[in-house]
Amino acid sequence: MSAELTPEKIKDNLSTLLIGSEVRVAGEVGSTNDWAKQELARGAAPGLAVVADSQTEGRGRYGRTWVSPPGLGLYLSVLLAPPVEKNHYPLLTLMAGVAAARAAAAFSRTVLGLKWPNDLLVGTRKLGGILLEYCPGERSGVVLGIGINVNNPSFPDDIENLATSLRLANGAPVDRLALLRSLLNCLDEEYEGFLLGGDREIVRKWSERSPMFGEPVSVVQGPHLWEGTALRLDDWGRLVIRTGDGREQVFDAGEVTLRRAAE
Ligand code: BTN
């Protein structure tokens, strides 16, 4: 089920206030995040969503590759200009996670989960990811990139045991266009909530969709490794864990592993 993605089909009956006010679609790009940054530099307005059928340089956090074959996944980036201080931006990653989880849940036969800060999971496998990039300069803005593995029948050997798609999880293909439209609608709703000052609400919604809390985790930050129990997110969306010596450690970035799942 690989419905062609066109701006007209994507925008048909879209009920959004901002997100997708303009939609552009390309067959193949390097990275939709780079495309959105170029559009920002050319003066594009917030709300623009750029969508590609495939990416040759799709990327995730820490410069990792985001596998982006044609016709199978969703690869999109949305341009935003949130009127808030930069220290609120990490909440946008959580906001996008909530939106992606809500949208994908309606197309999933399995419960989906969120792993801090930017992973959408089926069980312990990665179904989707979010890459938020801030663009400074005269025309500053935020690019919110989202990738979801929709109808991938398999993955390259190096991520075969780490990744999954809705098709693999469901045992049946999913309508990519319908999922994309739902994602834009959910993003718009969640972003409106964020703009109305709903930081705590985002943290609450994110936390209720995460299997992390109360679980043993390790967090890698650069050369450092911490082990402990995931306790909560604070009001800024930072992860709080309790380490073996009983202290609370707060992270604003890091790579989390759910230790029980890794055993
Ligand atoms: C991650 O899990 O580390 C983030 C993955 C983000 C992938 C998406 S696909 C659309 C957009 N363009 C990119 O190059 N990356 C994001």
Description:
The protein is of the alpha+beta class. The chain starts with 6 loop residues before the first helix and ends with a helix. Helix 2 links the parallel strand 1 (23-29) and strand 2 (49-55). The chain contains seven helices and twelve strands. Helix 3 packs across helix 5 and helix 3 (90-105) crosses helix 6. The model has no long low-confidence stretch (mean pLDDT 96). A seven-stranded mixed β-sheet has the order 1-2-3-7-6-5-4. Strands 11-10-9-8-12 form a five-stranded antiparallel β-sheet. It has two domains: 7-208, Bira Bifunctional Protein, Domain 2 (BirA Bifunctional Protein, domain 2), CATH 3.30.930; 216-262, SH3 type barrels (Roll). It is 27% helix and 29% strand. Bound molecules: biotin. Biotin is lined by residues 31-33, 55, 58-61, 64, 66, 75-77, 118, 129-131, 145-147.
Task: List its traits.
SH3 type barrels, BirA Bifunctional Protein, domain 2, 2 domains, alpha+beta, 263 residues, binds biotin
- Total number of helices: 7
CATH architecture assignment of the largest domain: 2-Layer Sandwich
Main β-sheet description: 7 strands, mixed
- At the first level of CATH, the class of the largest domain is Alpha Beta
User: What pattern of helices and strands is seen along the backbone?
Assistant: HEHEEHEEEEHHHEEEEEH
How many discrete domains? 2
Structural class of the helices, strands and pairings?
A: alpha+beta
Helical amount among residues, as a percent range? 25-40%
Mean pLDDT: 96
Gyration radius (Cα, Å) is 18 Å
N-to-C CA distance: 36 Å
Beta strands, count: 12
